[in-house]
Amino acid sequence: MKNVNELTPEEAADELRRIAAEMAKSDIAYYQNDDPYLTDSQYDELKRRNEEIEKRFPGLIRPDSPSHRVGAAVKSGFAKITHRFPMLSLGDVFSMEEVDDFIMSVKRFLNTADMPAFMAEPKIDGLSFAARYEKGRFVSGATRGDGTVGEDITANLKTIRQLPLVIPGNVPDILEIRGEVYMSKADFFALNEKYAAENKKTFANPRNAAAGSLRQLDSKITAERKLSIFAYTWGEVSERVWKSQADFFEHLKAWGFPTNPLNKLCLSLNDIEENFKRLMEIRASLPYDIDGIVYKVNDIALQERLGFLTRTPRWAIAHKFPAEQALTKINAIRIQVGRTGALTPVADLEPVNVGGVIVSHATLHNEDEIKRKDIRVGDTVVIQRAGDVIPQVVKVLPEKRPADSTEFEFPHVCPQCGAHAIREEDEAVRRCTGGLSCPAQAIERIIHFVSRDAFDIAGLGNKIVEEFYHEGILKNPADIFTLEKRNQALREDLFAALDDGKIHLEAREGWGKKSVDNLFKAINDKRRISLPRFIYALGIRQVGTATSLLLAKNYGSFNRFMDDMKNKETAKLVAIDGIGPSMATDIVEFFQERHNLNIIDKLLAEITVEDYIDDTDYDSPIAGKTVVFTGTLQRMTRSEAKAKAQSLGAKVAGSVSKNTDYVIVGADAGSKAAKAAELGVNTLSEEEFLNLIG
Ligand code: IVH
Question: What contacts 499, CB < 8 A, 6 or more positions away?
C-alpha cells in the first residue's frame, strides 16, 4: 500500500471512496446482520488510513465518510428543529377486546364490512428520531420533543452506525425517515457494569440509557455508547413512492435502514391475536425491550382517509403488553395536594424491582379506592406498572396484614394549609378549600405554568419554584416575568434589600451571575407564546392540551376567548364538538374569579399571546363557517365528513342555532333539518356539500 504522503489527489479520492464503501458494508454486516467479516484490527486500520488521507486532503472528505461517526462537542444547548409534520403519538389499548373495538371503529369510519390489512410492528421501547435526507444525503436529525419542536441531534445521530449517511440509488429529493433509537439489552448491561466499576451512576433501564446517550451535547460520548435504530415511518417526503406500510419497509431495506424483522402483515383478527401471543412469549428473549405492538392500517390511501385526531392517528394504535407486577409493603400513606386542590393519596413503598425499574411510590387514586380495596399502612400489596403510568396498587394480601392494623382515615382538612377539605356530591375527589392561600396549590400552579406543554421554562425546576415561593420571590405565575426587574432593583439598592432580608439572586448559595443570566434568558425567551400553550398554562380544571388546542382553534385570539368567558357564554362553549357541560362550567368559573383575572392582566402586561393561525385550509368556501351534519350520509361516514369539514377550516357543531351557516342533510334526517327550516338556515344535500367543497 502506498504511503499517504505519496498519493496523488486522484488516488486519494479513489481510496477514500473505497474505504467508505468497505466500512459501510462492514457496518451493515456487523450491526444489522450480526455477521462481521472484518476483524477489529482490520476495521481500525481502515479507519486510521481514512483519517490520515483526510488530514492531507481535507477538501476530499466525503459526505459518507466514516470519520463523521466520531462526534464532536457543541458549546451551548441543542438548537431547535421544527418538524414539518408533527411527530404524533399513539393511542394505547390493553386487551384484544379493545383492539377489536379499534378495528371496528376503523371499519365504521371507512364504512366497510371488510377488515383492512394491518401491519403489526413490535413497539420498541426507546425514543423516536427523525432523520432528514436531501438528494440522498443525511442533512439533519431531531428528537421528537413536544411533537412540534424537537432538538437538533444531527451530530449525535451521525455517530449511530446503522444510520445511512448517504442513501444509494433512486430516492425522493426530500426524504425524512423516522424511527426509534434504542440500546440493546446486552449493550445496556455492559455499560452499567462498566459504570458500576468506575463508581458512576448506572441507568435504570435500556430506555433511559438510550435517552441519556443520545441527548449528549458532546456527541463523542454518544459515539462511545452503542446505540441502535429501527426505522418505521416517515415525515416530510417530496414524493411518496410507496403505497402501503409493507411496501415502505421494502424501500427502507433497499435504502439500507434497519427494519424490525418481526414486523408482520395481519389479515384477520386471528392473525393479530396469534402474533400478539407469540411476541409475548418471545419478548423476554429478544435482544431489545419492547412494550407492546403497534398496528397500522397497511394501505396508505386508507390511512389518508382516516386521518388524525388531535394528537394521534385514527389509523394506528399501540397494543400494550399487560402490566408487570411485584409484591411489596406499604410503609406510609401520604396526601398530596395538587394544583386544583385535589387531595391525592400516595403510598410510600418498600422499594421493589418491577420489570427492571425500581418502584418506591404508588398512587392510591382517591378516598373511595382506598376504602374499596381496604388499603392500610403496613399492608403487603401487589403493585403493577404499565407503560409510563404511575405504579398502582392492584390488591392487598389480607393474610399478611399485621394484627394491630387499623383502617386508613382520610383527612378532612388539607395537610398542607389546614383549610377544610370537602367533597362535592357525585365527585370522587376531596378538595382543599384554601385556594391560592394554600401553598401547595399555589406552588403546583406555578409548576404547571412553567411545565413542558405550557411555558416550558426549563430553568425553573420544581425545587426552585418551591424555594422561591416560600421566600416570597414567586407568589404566582405573573411574578415570573417581573423577576428580572425586581432582581435588578435589589442589586442596585443592596442596603435597603438587606434591611428587608432579601438578597439578589446572584448572591444565593450555589448561584452565580451565569446561572442567573441563564434563568432570565430562559424566561425572556418565552415572552411570546402560542395561544394553545397559554390557555393550557392557566391551569383551568379539566383543560388539558387537547382542549386548549380546541379552544384556540375556535376563538383564534385570547381576548375574544376571555371576553366570552367573562360574559358567561357557556352555550357557545358547549356548541364546540369535544367540550361538555361540566368542562364548560369549569372554564367559565375560572374567569369569574377576581384573583385569576388579576393575574391574567399582570401577565398580559409582560407577554404577548399570539393569535392562533390554523394550518387548515382557510381559502376553502366553508372556512370559518359553522356546519351541522344530520341524517345518514351515503358517500362518506359522519366522522369522515366532520374531519373533512374541520380540515377545511369549518367549525362542526352538534346542534342547529341561528349561528349555524350550513346544515348538511342526509337521508332520514329528523328534527335538526326541521329546526334549520324554522330558523331559515341554509341546508345542503350531501351532493351539494361535496360540490361546494370541491
Ligand atoms: S409509529 C403516527 N411505530 O411509540 C405514528 N411508533 O406511542 C407514530 N414506537 O412516539 C409512531 N415502535 O416512539 C410507531 N413501530 C413503531 C414504533 C413506534 C415504537 C414509539 C414511538 C412513538 C410512540 C407512540
Answer: none
